[in-house]
Structure formats: C-alpha cells, structure tokens
Design brief:
single chain, mainly alpha, 8 helices, 53% helix, elongated
Length: 182
C-alpha cells in the first residue's frame, strides 16, 4: 500500500476513459435488465423489450445461474448485429418473439421451457440456439466462469501447464507414466 503508482498520460487516459464509458453505458435501457455488474449494449434492429425477451430465451437455452449477464448480453448484441445486416433475419427474430408473447421474459422458467419446446424446430429457435452456443461459450467471461484458460499452444502447451493436474486421481508411478518429451 505504500508504493506510489506512476501512470503515464496514455495509461491515465485509458483507465479514465474505460471508467467513464462504463458509467455512461450503464444508463442504457438494456442495463435495466442486468442482475449482475453494470453492462449495456446498443441495439440497432431490436427494441429493449425484444432484447429482454431474447435475454430470457438465451438464459433458458443455456442456463447458468451464476454466469454474468454480460456474457448473455454479448449473444443479444450478436443477434442484433445480424438482424441489422439482414432484413429476413430481423423478421425471423420478430416473428419468433411474437410467437413467444410479451410476457415470456417475466414468466417462470418451466413455462419458458415449455414455450421453447413448442417452437424448437422453428428457424427462430434454431438461429437463436446456434448463435447462443457460438457466442456464449467463446468469450472470456464464460471462460473465467467455467475455468477454461484458453488455448495452450501460445502458452507452451498443456504438458507443462497442468495437463496432469488431476487432484481427484491417485498419482501414477513414474515407471507407468511413460517418457516425457524433452
């Protein structure tokens, strides 16, 4: 605590810009549906109500109670970006959300599951499911939640980085473990 922190001009600007951006973005309408830390996304093709409904859809498709809402927000952002570029996809999203009804996002989880089961073969559900799996499980927020450290090649590979970090298995005698590469 006694150490003095020296920031150069660039570090100071980066730090304060990030903090100010976070404070400004937290005032966005989508920030109201976040349960966790403050996050927000700008929607171009979708309304805030549609974003909230899609948030409920993605949380129902891939339920992780303690995963930060920001990870799910990245899925909504990707869906919105696709809907902005493709009018047909936008119509598919809006039709699917209309099928689910306006009370979908506030309904109980079992009711949401039943509603999604009814439309699981629709292009809407399949598109949202695919995008959820692609985006949700390929971002650093989810990596941290699941304990995934990322690919190992750039860090020297798995062999010397805990590949054999299996605390729940007994130690293998060296003569049975095989040769280690040099």
């Amino acid at each position: 605590m006694d150490a003095l922190v020296n920031l150069n001009r660039r570090e100071l600007i980066k730090t304060t810009t990030g903090v100010l951006t976070g404070l400004v973005v937290a005032g966005s309408p989508l920030a109201l549906i976040a349960r966790g830390a403050a996050w927000a996304i700008d929607l171009g093709a979708l309304t805030s109500a549609e974003g909230a409904a899609l948030m409920a859809v993605t949380r129902t498709i891939a339920p992780h109670d303690k995963l930060d809402e920001a990870a799910y927000a990245l899925v909504i952002q990707a869906l919105d970006a696709d809907a902005t570029k493709d009018e047909k996809f936008r119509a598919t999203l809006k039709e699917g959300l209309a099928q689910l009804g306006s009370g979908f996002s506030s309904s109980a989880e079992n009711d949401r599951i039943e509603a999604l089961k009814k439309i699981e073969s629709s292009p809407f559900f399949q598109s949202v499911r695919l995008k959820t799996l692609q985006v949700l499980y390929s971002n650093p927020i989810a990596y941290a939640y699941f304990g995934y450290e990322g690919e190992a090649f750039s860090k020297g590979g798995y062999l010397r980085r805990g590949f054999n970090d299996l605390r729940w298995l007994p130690e293998v005698p060296p003569e049975d473990s095989g040769p280690l590469p040099a």
